[in-house]
């Protein structure tokens, strides 16, 4: 049964544009949930994480924040994925999850002009955050959507490390609101 469930999940992920991954609030984020998230990102799909059965959790003032921090620690590299607390039984925030999925879909289809990207790089240069002594990022352009992909032109691409790529990705996310969608650099 689990084999066919996994197979159907993968097929659904390949067909969708945005995946709303429902996790059980009483079980927390399981390894199977993390595998599904990683598959969605690998396929380049937008993702919304919905924590369901929120009505069954005993809450105090910081419960939602504590659960959010727990999830963010388990999937630290996917911190751009929005988390929403829902209850299918009481229909709490069900419509909000659909609205959030539409927002992620628009982010997934967002096109940034080359002039905007180059102004963004210029601002990073002014703050000193883009300067590196061994290579220079000359200019950038967006070469795809669904998911958004960006092409950076540099004098030494072999010297750009993974942590610098993550830094650029995070800055692009923050500047142009790519919440919920993977970015290809």
pLDDT < 50 stretches:
none
Number of strands: 5
Rounded mean pLDDT score: 89
- H-E string: HEHEHEHHEEH
Account of the 3D structure:
With 185 residues, the chain is an alpha/beta fold. The chain is 44% helix and 17% strand. The chain has helices at 2-15, 31-42, 63-74, 94-108, 114-127, 162-176; strands at residues 18-24, 46-52, 83-85, 137-144, 149-154. It has a 3-stranded parallel sheet. It has a two-stranded antiparallel sheet with strand order 4-5. Strand 1 (18-24), helix 2 (31-42) and strand 2 form a beta-alpha-beta unit. The longest helix is centred in the middle third of the chain and has 15 residues, at 94-108. The radius of gyration is 19 Å and the shape is elongated.
Briefly characterize the structure:
By secondary structure, the protein is of the alpha/beta class. The chain is built from 6 helices and 5 strands, in the order αβαβαβααββα.
Features:
185 residues, alpha/beta, three-stranded parallel β-sheet, two-stranded antiparallel sheet, 5 strands, 17% strand, elongated
How are the SSEs ordered, and which strands pair?
Blueprint (H helix, E strand, L loop, with lengths): L1 H14 L2 E7 L6 H12 L3 E7 L10 H12 L8 E3 L8 H15 L5 H14 L9 E8 L4 E6 L7 H15 L9
Parallel strand pairs: 1-2, 2-3
Antiparallel strand pairs: 4-5
């Amino acid at each position: 049964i689990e084999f066919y469930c996994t197979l159907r999940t993968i097929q659904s992920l390949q067909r969708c544009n945005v995946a709303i991954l429902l996790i059980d609030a009483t079980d927390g984020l399981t390894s199977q949930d993390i595998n599904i998230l990683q598959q969605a990102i690998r396929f380049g799909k937008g993702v919304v994480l919905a924590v369901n059965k929120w009505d069954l959790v005993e809450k105090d003032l910081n419960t939602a924040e504590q659960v959010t921090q727990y999830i963010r620690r388990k999937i630290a590299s996917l911190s751009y994925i929005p988390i929403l607390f829902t209850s299918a039984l009481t229909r709490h925030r069900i419509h909000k999850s659909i609205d959030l999925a539409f927002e992620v879909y628009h982010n997934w289809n967002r096109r940034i002009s080359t002039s905007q990207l180059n102004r963004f790089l210029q601002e990073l240069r002014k703050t000193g955050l883009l300067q590196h002594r061994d290579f220079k990022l000359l200019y950038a352009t967006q070469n795809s959507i669904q998911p958004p992909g960006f092409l950076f032109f540099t004098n030494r691409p072999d010297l750009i490390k993974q942590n610098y790529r993550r830094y650029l990705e995070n800055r692009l996310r923050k500047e142009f609101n790519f919440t919920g969608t993977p970015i290809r650099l």
